[in-house]
Amino acid sequence: MNKNLIPVFFSVDDNYVPFLIVTLESIVSNASKDNFYNFYVLNNGISKENIEKVMKYNKNNFKIEFVNMADKLVKIGDALHTRDYYSKTTYYRLFIPTMFPQFDKALYLDCDIAVQADIAELYNTNLGNNLVGAIADESVGIIPEFINYVNNFLGVKNTNYFNAGILLMNLKELRKIDFEGKFINLISSYTFNVAQDQDYLNVICKDRVTYASKVWNKMPFEDNSLALKDIKLIHYNLSFKPWHYTDVLYQEVFWKYAKQAGQEEKMLQLLAEFTDEKKQKDALGGKKLIEMADAQSKQKDSFKSLLESGEINSVTFLRRDALAPDQVLANFVEKIGSKFAKKNNK
Questions:
Q1: CA distance 297 to 295
Q2: What angle do CA 289, 291, 293 make, to 5 degrees?
Q3: Degrees (nearest 5) of the Cα angle 155, 160, 162?
Q4: Rounded to the nearest 10 degrees, how much is the dihedral formed by the CA atoms of 112, 114, 120, 124?
Q5: How many CB atoms lie within 10 A of CB 315?
Q6: CA-CA distance, 295 to 280, in Å (whole number)?
Q7: Is residue 116 within 8 Å of residue 253, measured between CB atoms?
Q8: What backbone phi and psi angles, to 5 degrees, belong to 78?
Q9: Contacts of 42 by beta carbon, 8 Å cutoff, 6+ apart
Q10: The model's pTM
Q11: pLDDT of residue 75
């Protein structure tokens, strides 16, 4: 194959397939014929009907592959904690480096986006030996409680805290540092509740990030410095969802691709079904998240303090004197084995 290969990953469940379709429509509409785009859909079971809908993009210089994460989830067990509307799909991106050793670099994209440029431009960003390429999180930059949280609780400078929904991953370097091992150690040692997988990524990749322009991850906040035509990727994150509200900035771009993808009727249905009660619940959820960030930023035993004191090792991300997860498993197997032996010797 003479064309440039661009591997792109998504994480979805059945409920999010319609948004994946809109995202794919926007990517395909702006892609170059000089590249070959390999789309990997990480999942834990997708209906045959939804697979068929997505596979319409499996043509020309685009290829779709569905990757079931069931075996991986069995090995990790209950370590992947979630809250509110989050599902374990949000963690799937963290296993890409070890699951796809054939790639040195890959893009991970959320599905609540609309693309207005060729994503190969972002993929071709030179990362050097940095672990990821990302864009500073706009919401953190404007909400005081989030600023305090990342500075005081995580120990990451708020201007350096990146959004993990648009991620260029240096898979080669991530494998070198055993990123997956560090993540499993960390999630076994400490629980992040505010942004979960995004927080884990930020603390592990700290100081090894290449920052791309915000035009590649523009959230629907007013910004007089940018014209819509200059924005390359719009990220409808948090509560800024055109399928829930009618006053979202840049919503016309989303509806353009929803119509092209044959998903307009589905999205209008979701909009009609998002009642005032659901809007109130959504607003309350946002308020609680800010309150959580505020409370944690004031904790004495913050992750930042535990790291600085050496209670959590800054290299392995294990608590002091803690056993690594593989050793815990080995001890468990040995214990079960000895019980089995005793039972058979009776």
A1: 6
A2: 70
A3: 100
A4: -60
A5: 8
A6: 22
A7: yes
A8: -90, 10
A9: 9, 10, 11, 12, 67, 69, 89, 92, 93, 96
A10: 0.88
A11: 57
List pLDDT tens digits, range 51-105. Answer: 999 999 999 999 999 999 877 765 565 554 444 444 466 778 999 999 999 999 9
The residue with tokens 């014209």 is: 227
Q: Are strands 4-11 and 106-109 parallel, antiparallel or unpaired?
A: parallel
Beta pairing class for 209-211 and 132-136: parallel
Q: Residue 341: what pLDDT? A: 47
pLDDT of residue 194: 86
Q: For residues 133 and 213, is the Cβ–Cβ distance under 8 A?
A: no
The parts of the chain modelled with pLDDT lower than 70 are 1-2, 73-89, 321-346
**Strand ranges, E, within the chain:** 4-11, 35-43, 62-68, 106-109, 113-115, 132-136, 162-169, 209-211, 233-235
Q: What is the DSSP letter of 131?
A: S
Identify the residue whose tokens are 């800024």: 240
Nearest CA to 216 out of 132, 131, 145 is that of: 132
Residues in contact with 125: Cβ distance below 8 Å, sequence separation at least 6, in sequence order: 133, 168, 210, 212
* pLDDT at site 58: 97
Of 107, 87, 109, 115, the residue nearest 261 (C-alpha): 115
* Pairing status of strand 162-169 against strand 106-109: antiparallel
Sign of CA dihedral 177, 196, 89, 234: negative
Q: How far is CA 115 from CA 24, 111, 265, in A?
A: 9, 10, 20
- Partnered with residue 166 across adjacent β-strands are 109
